[in-house]
Amino acid sequence: MKTVAIIGAMEEEVALIAKSLDGVKHNKTASLDINVGTLTSKSGEQITVAATVGGMGLVNAAATTQVLVDAYHPDAVIFSGIAGSLNKSMHIDDIVLGGTLRYLDSDMRMIAQWKPETEEFHSDQHLLDVASAALDEMGIHHMTGVIASGNNFIGTPEAAAVVAEKTHADAVEMEGAAVAHVAARNDVPVLVIRALSDEADTEYEQFKEFDISEYADTAARLAVDIVTRL
Q1: Which of 152, 153, 147 is nearest to 121 (CA)?
Q2: Which domains are seen in the chain, by residue range?
Q3: Does the model's pTM come out above 0.90?
Q4: How many CB atoms lie within 10 A of CB 221?
């Protein structure tokens, strides 16, 4: 039986994913509430799903990913959340699939001396293809692009311009590269999905007032649909 680990950005998102699972049980470990159940794929295969909220920031994302890998030995890790857009052709509610993930504030010349010995990370091509097909059917505008990840919230046009010039990214956020990094260290295929919530030009105090609950429903439906296609 295949196993897929899903890391969500919001409690609402993971709760909706859990409602789609059969035989859900809650496993609490390392400060995580992990929902474990099964889905039936379109081919009729039973797939085990372990879904949890990852927490904000690179360390939280990395720790969550490693806990899921160690506990459930997944065949794939799917990570969804929100990001700021750096691509003028992409707008709020569009989705960027993380074809390439880069750190904002890390000297990768040193870090890349350790497995997986690379200065950037990539979502699995098969998972990208499956996600793109699901998004096409949902009618959601999307692209496969570059996502930059760092521990600083990018909240001004000036800061966004610096990130865009430095990384040539289409979106910026605070977790994706860490998830992809840990997955690569463990030889687990990964898929990073980012819905665009703003243009990386909104101060945090204003940004945190945004209602992103609507995305929770879309993200949950997308994650479930992707798993059923595997």
Answers
A1: 147
A2: 2-228 (3.40.50.1580)
A3: yes
A4: 16
Choice among 129-143, 161-175, 197-211 with the minimum mean pLDDT: 197-211
- Amino acid residing at 68: L
103's tokens? 């750190």
Q: Which pLDDT tens digit goes with each residue over 6-25?
A: 999 889 889 999 999 999 99
DSSP state of 155: -
Residues belonging to the active site? 13, 198
Separation CA 40–CA 46 (nearest Å): 5
Averaged pLDDT score across all residues of the chain? 90
In this prediction, residues 35-60 reach a mean pLDDT of 96
Helices and strands: H and E segment counts in the chain: 8, 9
Report the amino acid identity of residue 26. Answer: H
